[in-house]
Amino acid sequence: MSGLEETKENDVSKQASKHIKETIVESIPPPIKFRALKRFYANRAATISVVFLVALIVLCYFPNLITDFSQNEQTAFKRLPPNSTNWLGTDLLGRDILTELLYAGQITLRIAIAVGIISTFIGSLAGAIAGYFHKIIDSLLMRVTDLFLVVPQLVILALALKKFGDEYIAMVLIISLISWMFTARLVRAQVLSLKSREFIDAAKMNGRSSIYIVFRHLIPNSWSVIAVSSAFTIAGAILLESTVSFLGFGVQAPLTSWGRMLYDFKGFAIGQYFYLFLSPALATFFTVLAFNFISDGLRDAFDPRSEQS
User: Domain range holding 35?
Assistant: First the structure.
């Protein structure tokens, strides 16, 4: 009899385990919804922004597609206005501004995207941990977040770069450490709404650890919020880098960025050679605008209220 009872208990345990696994699988939202993708592409501003950014990245890393000049190549023609040969004119040393703008874009975009990846990871992890464990850990992490929010980012960035140097890696790490708070708050709010869902309870009943639940269920199911935040963070990183470089604390020669170009040509913002300052200013403006439009498009695409539209 004991053998039969043990067999029955094993069968019941297997059925319960199977039911829990089915509950987990059925409760997890699909990773990508076609309707969300369709809504994103229905947003003209977001779609145009994606095309613009793809074209910009390609041209920045393959500038020879539209220019015959090499980086820092000097000609005898200085301060030429825009013409058929030099589309954006030449600078004080006779260098083609379009060529310099594209090479500078490599540094600006590299910094911004690296900051987006690192700060999004930090913010997602902090927000998920705070939202899931709640109480003491949540209170501690949120107070740290509030502390970073009230500190003037630009001042901290300028002082840190002056102290630790203006190298590419230092700039990426410093900007990342002051840019993760927005993502943390969004992910925390999302996790607070997810932690009471059935598939989280099923994972706990199945003996899953808290680390497994955070990384396997909570963070992946917050990916729509993370995507929106990352695009917004990249836009903010471009502005921060450009601002601090414009003030003279950021990228230094021989490297160049859009912010560094603004610093070099700030004396020509008004006057006959205004086009020297205008080119990097417009590049920064339209790139930041494009990332903001993409962030808005992602937010609208994944907004549950738009399912009814």
Answer: 31-64+88-308
Of the candidates 131, 93, 60, the residue with the CA atom closest to the CA atom of residue 280 = 60
Provide the 10 A C-beta neighbour count for residue 304. Answer: 8
- Looking at the structure of the chain, the number of domains it has is 1
Query: Are residues 132 and 213 in contact, defined by beta-carbon separation less than 8 angstroms?
Result: yes
Pair 116, 183: CB distance under 8 Å: no
Whole-number pLDDT of residue 33: 54
- Mean pLDDT, the chain, rounded, equals 83
- Domain assignment of residue 99, yes or no: yes
Burial status of residue 294 (CB atoms within 10 A of its CB: 0-12, 13-18, 19 or more): buried
Q: What is the pTM of this model?
A: 0.82
Tell me which residue of 111, 105, 94 sits closest to 258, measured CA to CA: 105
* Closest by Cα among 105, 108, 107 to 67: 105
pLDDT category of residue 283 using cuts at 50, 70 and 90: very high
Separation between Cα atoms, residue 298 and residue 38, nearest integer Å: 11
Task: Give the chain's length.
Answer: 309
HSE-CB for 92 with a 13 A CA cutoff: 8
Round to whole Å and give the CA distance between 256 and 109. 12
The predicted model gives 178-183 an average pLDDT of 89
pLDDT for residue 165? 64
Q: Is the peptide bond before 254 cis (omega within 30 degrees of 0)?
A: yes
The CATH code of the domain that includes 98 is: 1.10.3720.10
- Number of helices (H), then strands (E), belonging to the chain: the values are 13, 0
Half-sphere exposure of 133 (CA within 13 A, CB side): 17
